[in-house]
Amino acid sequence: MRILFITILLSSLFVDSQDLKTASTINEVTLYLQGARIERTASIELKKGTHEIKLSDLSPDIDEASINITDLDGMRLNGLSYSATALEKKETSNNIKALDAQIAEVKDAIGKLNALNSGLDQERLLLESNRSLNSKDTGLSLAQIKEFGTYYRTRFAAIINERNANNEAITKASEQLNKLNIEKQKLNPEANERRGTITLKVITPSTRRYSINFSYNVYSAGWVPIYDITAQGTDDKINLAFKAQAYQATGTDWNNIKLKISTGDPQMDNQMPPTRNKTSRFCK
């Protein structure tokens, strides 16, 4: 009878075990000179029992040792792991898609300009092959010959000017294409095709909605100090403005987030330890 009771108890404990996936939102980012600490929150409805929760759509370059589960809202943590997997092509970043569209548009414009130049070259060859008046044209008047000469001269000049304008446009478009390709490379296409997942194994005491607060470090982000020095004249005071130029290529978007700029080290605990009052007594 006792063995039967234990079997039923174990069955009721694991019958609600589920593998669940949930997204999370960024609460705050602390940006260091090299690296960043990202704090996130997730919310999920769970039944009483054992669950495996996958916190998905995270950066693929998380420092696994830095993952910290700060609050499980009453759940008990039984295990934690991190992995990065490749996404399907259909989940390509929207930023990459926008750049690809611009790149295709610029390439199309360059192709059209090259086609115009080819047409102008063919027209020039045609004019050159027909500009000489042969013997059977001796019946032409001087005015007609001058008219032909004016036409050829004007058209040749127009072809050269139009071709030069096209070449200038091609040069500018090629420079724009190069900038777009560099910008696309900066977005780290490899990171945008991969996503990180933190897997938690938890036990929930009751059926309700739970919140999960967690944080981790990434190193594909940082900031660079910039100084602006201005003065109204040689005898005036100098104004020094300190700014930060931030960058990130974590593979996830940072839209409308709370951002802190820090000169600290993400590997170190920058929280001030609690202090206690100590009393000293002196006797004469």
UniProtKB/TrEMBL annotation:
Residue spans of biased composition, Polar residues class: 264-277
Xref: NCBIfam families: mucoidy inhibitor MuiA family protein
Coiled coil: 89-116
Keywords associated with the record: Coiled coil
Domain DUF4140: 29-124
The keyword Coiled coil belongs to this UniProt entry's keyword annotation: yes
InterPro entries registered for this protein in UniProt: CHP02231, DUF4139, DUF4140
Species name: Nonlabens ulvanivorans
Location of region: Disordered: 263-284
Protein known as: Uncharacterized protein
Residue ranges annotated for the DUF4139 domain, each copy included: 213-276
